[in-house]
Amino acid sequence: VQLVESGGGLVQPGGSLRLSCAASGFTFSSYYMNWVRQAPGKGLEWVSGIRSGGNTYYADSVKGRFTISRDNAKNMLYLQMNSLKSEDTALYYCLSSFGSWGQGTQVTVSS
User: Fold this and answer.
1) Which end of the chain, C or N, has fewer beta carbons within 10 A?
2) Residue 61: CB partners within 8 Å, gap ≥ 6?
3) Which residues contact 82 (CB under 8 A, 6 or more apart)?
4) How large is the average pLDDT for residues 61-65?
């Protein structure tokens, strides 16, 4: 099983980023997938989840600003992040429902 995140970077407040997670080694289309994040000095925070059929769920802190999606044909998970705030600064991970993690991608929101 391998999950590889990409797309992080430095962005100004109010900006946008799109994170990607490439999945391999398992039947991606069958599993609920999540994005979680860890801000500096803080614990893990669940951000969003998406069922295999496409139903989506969001933490209140990102609802209306972030959009999770998946492409089961390409084994890809995405997180479109708009209206970014400084408090969104964190290491973002994709997480499968059976507990596999990627290495994370850093998102820094700063002017």
Assistant:
1) C
2) 45, 47, 87
3) 16, 65, 66, 67
4) 98
Specify the pLDDT at position 27. 96
Tokens of 25: 């080694």
Distance CA 71, CA 83 (A): 24
| pLDDT bracket for residue 65 (50, 70, 90) | very high
What is the spatial order of strands in the sheet that 105-109 belongs to? 9-11, 105-109, 90-96, 33-38, 44-50, 56-58
pLDDT tens per residue, range 79-99: 999 999 999 999 999 999 998
Which of 32, 12, 16 is CA-nearest to residue 109?
A: 12
